Every structure is written in C-alpha cells, then in structure tokens.
Amino acid sequence: MKTKIYEYLAQNKGKELTAEEVAKAIGVEKVAVVKAQLTRLIREGKVEKTAEGRYRAK
C-alpha cells in the first residue's frame, strides 16, 4: 500500500493532496491507514508534508 500511495503522489507531482484524497483515489476506506503510511514515507524522505494536512511527493 505504501508503494501505491507514493506512486499516486508521484503521478500528481506538484499537487498537494490530503490523506482523504489519496485514500479515495487509491480505493482505501481507512484514512488512518493512509496517514500512517504517509508518515513512513515522510521519514524515508520520499514525501513532504505541506500546509495543514497536505502531502506531496518530493
């Protein structure tokens, strides 16, 4: 799932998306799961958190 999230953000490079938007786009019902994976991607340096709860690929 982490790969799916990263691929979706990478395809939308430059766009700042919420965890809810990412979850809906990749077909995941539990937003908390997406948020947890986004946190891991941030730690890995692949994703950055921008304004209030928005994320984008680096």
TrEMBL record:
InterPro entries per record: WH-like_DNA-bd_sf, WH_DNA-bd_sf
SUPFAM superfamilies in alphabetical order = Winged helix' DNA-binding domain (SSF46785)
Domain of life from the UniProt record: Archaea
What name is this protein filed under?
TrmB family transcriptional regulator
Organism, as annotated = Pyrobaculum ferrireducens
